[in-house]
């Protein structure tokens, strides 16, 4: 089975040797043919701009290999949500995913069950975050904190309505004419005579 190896080290001083040796041993023992190696160096796991991971995902979409082999989940994914999205994409593409240290292989029944469990945990995490946000907003309202965008002052509303009624300005042009929050100067618009309807 054509297999891509993905590794990541967080600093220039770190070496990928431990990951590389472990992955090669595993691939050899499992009868996996290593056809590509992707290595991100000095990139934090929380950053999205990992060029080699992006290259791996592009190659996966092109069906360049049938299996992705990583040392640990945290070497591959930024978060549970990121891991789940990647696993869902691999599943859709028919690509097997193996994390050696986590002992997860989506090609096995246990690995498929683990994939379902990871999905459930990610959904739970998302629900908890949404619940906390709602509770925080409710508490802020109780304390009298105004949420959302501040209301447009009534004199600006009146000015906008007047411009819309008496000029041929577009919405974008009216936006440019009416002063913003910083007190931009008002430009004098071209006033057209009323059209009788």
Descriptive notes:
With 197 residues, the chain is an alpha/beta fold. It has seven helices and five strands; from the N terminus they run βαβαβααββααα. It has helices at 17-30, 51-61, 73-76, 80-93, 109-142, 154-166, 171-177; strands at 2-9, 33-41, 67-70, 96-99, 104-105. The chain has a five-stranded mixed sheet, sandwiched between helices. The longest helix is centred in the middle third of the chain and has 34 residues, at 109-142.
- What class would the helix/strand composition place it in? alpha/beta
Q: How widely separated are the two ends?
A: 75 Å
Strand content: 5-15%
Largest sheet geometry: 5 strands, mixed
Order of helices and strands: EHEHEHHEEHHH
Number of domains: 2
Give the fraction of residues assigned to helices.
Answer: 40-55%
Number of strands: 5
CATH superfamily of the largest domain: Resolvase, N-terminal catalytic domain
CATH architecture of the largest domain: 3-Layer(aba) Sandwich
Give the low-confidence spans: 182-186
Q: Compute the average pLDDT.
A: 82
Mass-distribution shape: elongated
The radius of gyration over CA amounts to: 28 Å
- By CATH, the topology of the largest domain is Rossmann fold
The top-level CATH class of the largest domain is Alpha Beta
Give, in spatial order, the strands making up the sheet with the most strands.
2-1-3-4-5
Q: With helices defined by DSSP (H or I, 4 residues minimum), what is the helix count?
A: 7
